[in-house]
């Protein structure tokens, strides 16, 4: 890994002789690494978790894709869509950190199985809702389970893969799951032509979640804390976790990492998700398409998101190799501007037929798809392994959820006065431009924070080796 010269912190431990350092070969022999020197079963883990995320996404998309028919069935106004979306995110503010805390007590395997799997029973219950109050409550409970994947899956990726690979891995996981979910959008949209079809959708995806809960219990193997770090991966899971214990002092220190705070504000300014929430409804209400046809735009959006994630992951890792301190920042900044431009032509210009919208929604998905493949690795590069769950809980469950809830409620309310086109212009396009400008502040502190983490990991390695050399407990 490329590093710049810096003075490492004083650890209080003398470095152990080089000969005592564990080797990759020894770690493979002991089962702590696979035959290629990677975390065992890490790809299997991500396939299973990706499947559970698809089921989560299917449940969540029922309310957005089929909202016009849900509104007709339950007698709802457009503002109800904003309330549903907001409640789902507000619940995550509490649920995300709670799942992280619970994962430290009973392990990520059980939390993932419960929250992203067996929690699907609440999706089934949502399909039985008879009025808006029931739907709102059950949808909110259902969303609490989805919050677990938002905070724990990035943590699992960071503990399973080295920094040089994280961009492409995040790209494949998030792109693949979003693409499959969006490809299912036309099928979900076709449920609008079936009486009570939206209820059957909730039943199906809720049951699918339960199936993935069983698969997680059967096949998921947790990598342990710090398994993706070059300095720590040759140690056993027990040694790594003993040297990476969470303390309240460490948690408080998380909020002193300047680069992380800048990224938090950037996440608060990420209004692009409103296009996925209100996009289909906008095409129906503003441009006159029927629900089933309008829902088809989510398929190219998902394909674009997949291409953006995968290509963005490769680009993220390449730019990180070219400039470990500035490459990914420039990419993140450019992605915000690109989305604002594409969103403008998608929502502010009227075209004949659905085809132009299919293309433009695909381009919006492409630009939005760049984000996970670059912002997650940026957080991982400056936050210690044991704090990444907490970091993503704040980053996604709290900050993103608060922003999303505000944008959803305000957008739904403003739609009644300025229309959904006006909402898209000011809240989506305008705020995303502000976000890009804000990210200019990240260039200076990121290098310092990244090097501080590298020095900390080096000190932990020296601490473990020193303890082993003297026969001490870590």
From TrEMBL:
Residues in Major facilitator superfamily (MFS) profile domain copies: 45-447
Superkingdom, natural source: Bacteria
Pfam families in UniProt: MFS_1
Stretches with biased composition (Polar residues): 1-10
InterPro entries (UniProt xref): MFS, MFS_dom, MFS_spinster-like, MFS_trans_sf
Keywords linked to the UniProt accession: Membrane, Transmembrane, Transmembrane helix, Transport
GO molecular function, one term: transmembrane transporter activity
Keyword check for Transport: yes
Protein's membrane topology: Multi-pass membrane protein
Transmembrane segments: 69-102, 109-129, 135-157, 169-188, 200-220, 260-285, 291-314, 326-347, 353-370, 391-417, 423-443
Subcellular location: Cell membrane
Name listed for the protein in its UniProt record: L-galactonate transporter
